[in-house]
Every structure is written in structure tokens, then in C-alpha cells.
Amino acid sequence: MQYLKDEQYYVDFYDLLTIKGCLRTINYWRKVCNDKAKDESLNKEEKEKAASHALNWELFILEGEEYAKKQSSIKRWMDEGRIEQDTYDNTAEPKSIHCSNCGSLMHSTMKDLEHFPNEPLRVLFFFECSSCNGRKGVYDNGEERLPKPHLCSKCKTEASVARTRKGKVITSIITCPSCGFRETEMDDLEENDRDWEKKQREDKELLEKYRNEFCLSDEKGKERLEFLEAMKYANQVYNEEKRKYDDPVYQKSAQLKKLSIAELEKILSNLLEKESYIKFVLEKPEIGKYVIVPFTAQDSDLSRRSTKSVDNLRKLIKETIEETNWRLIGDNVDYRLGYVSGRLKGYEREDDLLEILGKKKKTESPESELDYEKRMKYGSHNLVQLFRVFGEHDGIENVRKRRLEKEPEGFFLNIDDGPYSCGICGTGHYGNEIWWNLDGLRCINCHKNIKDGVIPSIKSRHNNDGEWFDKSQVSYDYGVPPIRRTKLEKEGLLQPINLVNREGMIYFTLYLEKDNQNFLKKYPKKANWRPREVINTGNKEVTL
Length: 544
Ligand SMILES: [Zn+2]
Ligand SMILES: [Zn+2]
Ligand SMILES: [Zn+2]
Fold this sequence. Notes:
This protein is α+β, with helices and mostly antiparallel strands. The protein has helices at residues 7-37, 44-90, 189-214, 218-244, 248-255, 261-274, 306-321, 350-356, 366-378, 382-404, 444-451, 471-476, 482-491, 517-522; strands at residues 107-114, 122-128, 135-139, 150-151, 158-166, 169-175, 182-188, 277-282, 286-287, 291-299, 326-336, 339-346, 411-412, 420-421, 428-429, 434-437, 440-443, 468-470, 496-500, 506-512, 534-537, 540-543. It has four domains: 7-90, no CATH class; 107-129 and 136-193, no CATH class; 259-347, Threonyl-tRNA Synthetase, Chain A, domain 2 (2-Layer Sandwich); 407-543, no CATH class. Strands 8, 9, 10, 11 and 12 form a five-stranded antiparallel beta sheet that branches. Strands 4-5-6-7 form a four-stranded antiparallel beta sheet. The chain starts with 6 loop residues before the first helix and ends with a strand. Residues 529-544 have low confidence and may be disordered.
């Protein structure tokens, strides 16, 4: 008996499982789509789009997961096959087995492997008696196999079974000694063979038809796994990034000014010169985990004694670099014959910046090493970059939402934020001219127009559900060129609202849906096309 097969057998078997899994997924989504098709309230096209999106995503992951487990599964099966083969081939048959009927010595005719849960494999040997034709099965450990009793299907009493074989058909007649019930079971070996062949044929067809589609090659598989891995990491990055904004130290570290060596030199030499420390120079930096730069200067104020000079210089430097990513190593400044020197240390990485603000570093656990590896591998992956932006965005949003508790109407952002585009007119402004609340970002002009009641507090341009539209939409969405638009405005079919800025100039024109019902009836919206797909992420839009 052949238990260990060649590798291709296992590859085919694995690929078949993958193919069947993928086909099940496709059928599931087809069914969902068809079930929902009966629901009139849903738009058919959109439903199909959503379902196929979900399906493709699921297949994308499933194929990757199947690929990930392929090699190890095949290896495991082959190892198991090897053990089975070895056990089957090399287990010694039990000696001196005597017939239970006549006591003659029996001889073995065939053997078989038997699996028992939580037990080592067993080999079952079949013995036959040449004197009386009696038979029995004996395991390799000498234990006799007890035939499984056949129970009457009516009264569950043990029934007697008489088997006859004619060609390839085995007939079993089961008779119950208790209730007398009799039944006949037929086992057609030829039919079994035919079924088996049919299944083989079907499997072969499935493999030919779908293997390329669902079973990833090594090259594609590795690519897929990397993507999925990056995706997981991206999620982690998103959460970490978002969480940072809950921690005041992170917020402070973000505000530290990151100075280059040249900037540092310029700032310090200007400042020190005013205090009579002349010829300030930075020497060649040591570039390692940190950047360490020795500096020297000369104290031209001869009235200062060494300790005073040193204290003074130390204080000056410390105060100057306090809000930057630089620190004076060991708070140390040396003084020799009017010559002062010391070393400055520059921090680049976020973790290190946190350290200088007094936050303890995460202990180097195996997990953080893993994170380090992942960061090196996936840190610059597009997906990770994108999720970092999302995380940062959502983190900032959370900080603002917390601020909203004290300033429920909203507030202007900081001058360092942005520039952002206004959610209504789309013009760019720095944070100090952007009003923020849960409606989104509003420039100072639009904010004033809302406050003054020129326009209601309308939704943002990219997701306003048709609440309002602007001039460009009159052309693109409703097919009305600018000249005709002006005419329609004069005739009163189009009712514009002109928004005026601080200088008294019209900076934006919009049309409210509720004011323009007649226009909308006459000029229905054209098929909605957009030059680019826009994913809406609240205030910040990322185009793919
Ligand atoms: Zn016998
Ligand atoms: Zn019975
Ligand atoms: Zn605006």
C-alpha cells in the first residue's frame, strides 16, 4: 500500500482546497447579491459594486493566507505520509496466531493502517485459517480486533449479518434475532470506482481551470504577503499615530524645533557674539545613533573669571536650545586660557526626542524589536505612509474634539497648522484663518458669512449630498456653460448666493438646492463623472 505520495500529489491537493475555498467565497457573495436584489430600495448597480468590492478584498486576503500556509502544510502532510509508510512497511507481524475455532496456526493475508485518536498508528494484520477458513484481525501488539456489532435499525439489538459477493457487488443481509427485522444492503464496488473516477476528473478540471487564478506563484505570493503584512503594520501605525495625540509629551515633542547643524551654528554664534564669546565654531560632527558636535569659542571679555565665563555660557546655550532638538552633553563646558569648549548632541528620532522631554523609553522587549524590523521593512511602504497620515489626522481631530468641550461653537486653529483648504470655498489658509468645528474646516470669510446668516451652516463641498453646488458644478454636473449660467441668473431661474470677503469682494458663489428647484428640474444632473476618484477622510482628502 502506498501512503507516501510524490510531492505533486500534495501540491494538487492543497491547490484544490484553495480553489474550493475561493469558489465558496464567490458563491457566498453571489448569493448575498441575489438575495438583496429583491430589495427594491437598494440601487442594483451600487449593490453589485459594493459586493464585488467586498468579494475581491476577501479573495485577495484568502489567496494570500492560503499561500502563506502552503509550504508548511505540504511538508506536514509529507512527513505524516513518511511516518505512515514507514510504519506500514516495517512493523513486524504478530507471531503464533491461532484460530479461535479449531486452534490451528493461522497465516496472514494482508495488512492495513489504523488511526486511533490520540494514539500511535497501528497496523492491523488479517489472518486466515487454512483448516477451517476462519478469519480474524490482529493488531501489531497482538491485540485482537473485535468486530463491530451491527445493530438492528429498528430495535438496536445486535443483528446477524450474512454477506455474499457476486462479481463487484457485495450484498449484506441483516437479520435481527429479537424483532425479526430484515434488511438488505448492497455495496457496488464498480459504482464506487466510477464515483471515484468522476471525482478525480472533476478535481482535475478545477485545477486546470482555476489554479492560475487563485493559487499564487512564489513571486506573486511573496508580494501579496508583504502587502498584507504592510497593511497590518499600517493599521498599527495608524493607531499609534492617533494615540500620540492623547499624550501631552508627544504634542510637546512635535513642537520642538528641529535645527540642522548649520542653523544651530548660526543661531548660537550670533547670540554668543553679543555676549563677547567670539569665533564660535562647530567642529566635525560624530555621526552615530545621535549626532554629536564639539564646539569651541573664545571669551573676549577678559574681566570674566573662568567659572563665571563657564556658568554664563552654559546658561546661554541651555536657554537657547531648550525648545530645539539639541542638548549640551553633560551640561559641560570647559575653560582653558580663555578658550571655551563643549559638545552638543542632536536628536532626530521621535523616540529620542521624547526622551529629552523626560519620557521614559519603552523597554526593549522582543515585540519592540519586531516593530523595529517592521519599521525598517515597511516604514516607507505607500500604504503605511497613507495610514500614518490618517492616524495623524484622526489624532489631531481628537485633540480638537476635546477642545470643543470648552469651546462648543468651534475655534480658529494655530498659525502653524495647515495650510488647509476651506470646506466650502476651497481656498487655502493657514490655521489662524481656519475655523474648526464638527462641520469641518471653514475659512475666516466663510465662517463670517455663516455667522452673519448670509448662508446657513452648510455641509462641506465633497460630501454635501446635493445640499448646494458651485459654479463649476453648474457647468460639469448640469451641462450649463458660463454664458448661459449668467443668463439664467438674470432670468431668476438660478438663484446664486455671492459670498463677500473682508475686502468687500465676491470670492465665491454658491447655489442652494432649496432655492433652485426649478433649475434642477429643467437641468437634471448628468451622469456623475469625476476626473479622479476621491476617498473622503473627513477634512483631508486623499486622491488615489
Ligand atoms: Zn480454523
Ligand atoms: Zn430488531
Ligand atoms: Zn471659505
